[in-house]
Amino acid sequence: MAPTIRIQDIADILIMTFLLYQLYTWFRGTRAIQVLLGLGVVTLIYFATRFLDLYMTSWVLQELGTVLIVLMVVVFQVEIRQALYRFSLLRHILDSRRDSQHSRFQEVAETLFAMASRHTGALLVFQRNDPLDDLVSNGVSLDCEISPQILESIFYNGSPLHDGAALIRGGRIALASCHLPLSVDPEIPQNLGTRHRAALGLSECCDAVIVVISEERGEVSLVSSKQLQVMNSTSELISALDGLLRNDVPAPSVSFRERFFANLLPKAAVLLGVCIFWALVTTRQGQITTVTAPVIFHGVPDGLILLKTAPEEVNVQLKSLSSLSPPPSKIDLTAELDASDVKDGQTNIRIHNSDFNLPAGLSITTISPTTVRITAEKKLRKRVLVKASLKGKLAPAVSSMQVVCEPATVDIEGPYSHISDLESVLTEDIDASLLKKGSEYKKNIRQLPKRVTLLRDLPITIKLVPSPRRR
To answer: Which CATH superfamily is domain 99-245 in?
Structure first.
C-alpha cells in the first residue's frame, strides 16, 4: 500500500527543513557541520541497508549510531548549548545589553592603533548576544572600566595577563588572559598566527566581535561572523565597531521574498534531504498486524470484587504509520478499562481506542470483541477462627493437652458467596507427634480459596496447653 501524504506530513517536512537549515547556517564553516554531514551519510546508509534486508550491516550501524550520539553530546556540548540558546524565544528579553559598552570606541581605537605602531600584540573580545561562558577559559576576573592605561597594562609584553584575550562585557573589562577556541579551518592563510586563529575560532561559535593586533606586522584586524578584515585607520575601526555593536543602529529591512530566495541552493538541498528521509521512515506505512492484548481494570468500586471477565484478552489490529515505530509484535499492549461504573451482577463495558497506550507511529484499525462482560459481587470482610492442621496423633505423654493457635482469629476478605459460609481457616500441615510441651511452632495460613485474601498475613504460633477441666 502506497503511503498517503497528510497535512501533518507536510507540516512535519517543513518544520524539519526549517530546523535543519537553521543548524546549517549556524554551524556552516565549522567542524560541527562536517560531523553532521558525515552522520547524515551514515544515516542514509543505515536506512538503505534496512530496506535491502542487510541485517548484519544495519545492526552494526544501529549500535554504532547509539555510541555516536553520546560522543556528539560530549564533543559538541558547547555548540549544542549555543544552538539551544539561539532557539530560545526569551533571550532578547532576558539579555540586558548596556549602551555603556560602546561609549569608549574613540579611546579604544586610538589605544589599539598606538599599540599596533609599537608592535604590541593584543586580542580584544566584545560580547554581543551569545553568552561566552562556555567558550572562554582560564580567564582572570577584572571587572574594571575600559581605559587606555588598563589596555596598555594588560597587553604589555612583560605583563602576566598579556598572553590571552580580554573580554569586554557590558561596557567593562570582565576577564583578561582568556583562552579562546582555535579555528581548524584549513583555508586560513599560513601567515596568520595563533591570535588570529583564536579570533576566527571564537567567531565560528558565536556572534562576538573580536579585534586582533598582529605583533609581527603591527596591523589591526576586525573579526566578525567568521570574516577577518584589516583596519587601515582609527576612523575605520570606530565605524566598524559602531555598526556592529550599537543598539540604535536599525537592522536593514529584508522582504519575505528576498529571505525566501536567499541561499536557495542550500535550502533546496535540505528540503530534498528531509523529503528523502520522510520517504524512508514511512516505508512501512499501511502495514497491518494483529496482536493479542490482555484486559485489565482500574477504578473498581471499593465495595465490589470482580469474579469473572469474558473475554480476558482481545485481538487488536494495528496499522504502522512509520518505520521508526516499533514492530507491533514487540510492544507490550494492554487494554486498560475503567470499571468505576460496574454494578453487583453482570456489566458490559465497551472498549475504545483510548483504552490502549500506543507508541507514536501506530494506530488501531479494529478491536475484537468490542465489549467485555464483567461479573462482580459484593465484597465481604469477616473474622474467622484459625485451626491447626494436624497430621497423625499426639505423643502419649501430651495426648491430654490441647493444641491452640495464636492469634486465634484472622480477618479475611472476598466475595460474599465465598466467605459467607466460611467459619475457619487452617494452618499448614504439622506433624502432631513432634509437638512437645513448652515448645512453640510457626506455621503460615494454608492457601485460601480463590479471590479470598488474608488482610494481615502473619505466621501462626502453634503450641500445647493444658486442656480445661470438665465440671
So the answer is: DNA integrity scanning protein, DisA, N-terminal domain (3.40.1700.10)
